[in-house]
Amino acid sequence: MILTAAVPCLLQRQKPPRRNRNFPEGDANKGALKKQIRRHLNAAMKLGTLDELEEALRMCERYDVQPDGEYFKAIRKVEYLRIKEGLRNAVRRRHIGTLEKAIQTARASPFARQLASAISAADKLRTQLVQYKVHRHAPPDLEQSTVSEIRSFKAPPRSVVTVMTAVHRLLGYKYREVLTWQRIQTLMGQSRDDGLISRVKRFDPSVPGLRAAEHVDQLLKSTSYDEVLMASNGTARFYVWASNALDKVYGELGKGKRKKKKKK
C-alpha cells in the first residue's frame, strides 16, 4: 500500500525550472544576444554618439557580457566624450565659473592633448568674459600705446573700423572726416592736445548732436563687445568708452539712456 501510494507521486510531472525572462530560450539564445550586443558596442564605437555608447555599455552590464578590449575602449571613449561635451556646453552657456570648471576637468584628464584645441577655445572665451566684466565695471584704461596698437592695423577687421569711427564721431568729427580707415589713422596720429587720448579726456557730451549720436548708436549696434575683443583688446576698451559716452550724450540731449542691443 505504501508503494502503491508513492507511485503516483513519483509519476507526477515535475515542473520545469523557471526561465530567465531575458533569455527565454536558454543558453543558445543568451549567447546569440551577447554576440549581438558586442556588435552593437563595436558599431557605437565607430559611429555612435555619447548616448549610443552609454546605452551599449548598459546593455553589456545588464546581460553580463564578459568585458574585453573593446569594452574598456568604449568606457574610455565615453569619458572622453563626456569631457568634450562639458567643454561644449560651458562655451554655449558663456558662464565664467562653468567654463573654469570644464577647463580644469579637461586639463586634468588623460585627454588633455586630444582636447587641446577645445580647451584653448574655452579658455580664450573665459578670458574675454573676465575682461568684459572688468571693462564694464571700471573705467577703460586708455593709453597712447593702445592707440598706437590700433593705428598699426593696415587692414583692420570691420569691428575695429566701426568702433574707431564711432569714437571720433563722439569727439565731434564730421562723417566725411572719418569715411576711410586712412583718415581715421591720420586723426589717431595727431599728438599733444589734438591727440586721441587728450580728446577723450576732454570729452564733452554736449558737443555731438542728435544726428551724430544716432549714427554712433547704429555703429555700436552693428557689432558686439565679444566681436571687437576678438579682433583687438585695445579697441574693446574704446568700445566700452564709446558706449558709456553715448549714454551721456543722450542724457545731455534729454533722451535718457539708449536702448541696448539685445543679446541673442
TrEMBL record:
Entry protein name: Uncharacterized protein
